[in-house]
Structure formats: structure tokens, C-alpha cells
């Protein structure tokens, strides 16, 4: 992970914006994935020149798409759609069977035995979304239909930073929801009868 205090590192506009969103207060609402996360997905798609960016959650042996950022004509998944986790690239990244960055999907040795998809993948990036308690919530992934030779380790770091931001937002909402649930089940002892 980049140290923002390092003298040899100057954050770009994307990293500055994600940092601003990280320090902003959590917004209200019921969704675990806030509109700020949606904004980060949009920024990632533009900055990394990807066609699809998504946050998935691992639930009961399935990968569930929670947020997807793609142009309408490039949406190959829909929010709420799920697949058995064991067959997903997301799970393969989390357990180390697939690298987090694949620039040349069609020729990379790590992808040759994988099942073919009904759409092309040129380049692919994926990192786990790890919650404060150490549990893997799911993944933050992006891919382009064409190969992208310009991807670098710094791009992967941008994805990691965004996954940390996403995890922070999910943790904040869960803490808030737990506090609200506690208040609703705890009798109000301040009332006098």
C-alpha cells in the first residue's frame, strides 16, 4: 500500500478524490454501498480505461453483484445477479489461483484453463474487499473488453485503495445499523410512569 507521506509519491487527482471521500462522514440511508462508492467506481472506470467495474459480495456460497459501473451497452451483469462462488474469477483471486492483474487475458498462462465467458475480457484487475474484522466481504473488480497495455502496479494500488474505501463504508453502515437496532430493542429508561 502506498504511504501518502512518502517523499517519492505524489497522489494524482483520482487518489486525492478517494482520500476526500474516505474522510467524509458516512451518509444516511439503508444501502451498504453508498453513493460515494458508486462515484469511486465511476472514477476507476474512467481512470483505468475499463469497460466494467463492480463490487461483489460473497453470500452463502455465491458472488452477488452489489454495484456495477458500466455504460448501458457494456453491462454484462446486473446488480443483484449472482453466480456460484467456486466458479468465479473473484474467488480465484481471493484464494490466490488467479493474479490480481492480468493485462493480456487471452494469452496469460493463468487464464488458459478458465471457462470461456459469453463476452471478451482483454484486461482484468481484482482485489478483495476486507472488512475491519478481517472477513472478506467480496471483491472490487474491473475489466476491459480489449487488452490494456498501460496498466501498472500503481493502477492496482488505486483499486486496492478503492477496496479499502468500500470496506470502510460498509463497516460504517453496519456499525450504524447495529447501533440503531440496539436502540430499538433497548427499553427507554428515561420515561417516568
What's a concise summary of this model?
The protein has 193 residues and is α+β, with helices and mostly antiparallel strands. It contains four helices and six strands; from the N terminus they run H-H-E-E-E-H-E-E-E-H. Strand 5 and strand 6 form a beta hairpin.
- Label the CATH architecture: 2-Layer Sandwich
Q: What fraction strand?
A: 15-25%
At the fold tier of CATH, the topology name is Beta-Lactamase
Q: Could you give the distance between the termini?
A: 57 Å
Describe the structure.
The chain contains four helices and six strands; from the N terminus they run H-H-E-E-E-H-E-E-E-H. The chain has a six-stranded antiparallel sheet. Helices cover 33% and strands 20% of the residues. The chain is globular and about 60 Å long. It has one domain (30-174): Beta-Lactamase (2-Layer Sandwich). The protein starts with 12 loop residues before the first helix and ends in an 8-residue tail after the last helix.
SSE map:
Layout: H1 13-23, H2 35-48, E1 52-59, E2 62-70, E3 82-84, H3 89-94, E4 101-102, E5 123-130, E6 136-144, H4 153-185
Antiparallel strand pairs: 1-2, 1-6, 2-3, 4-5, 5-6
Relevant terms:
alpha+beta, 6-stranded antiparallel sheet, globular, 193 residues, Beta-Lactamase, disordered N terminus
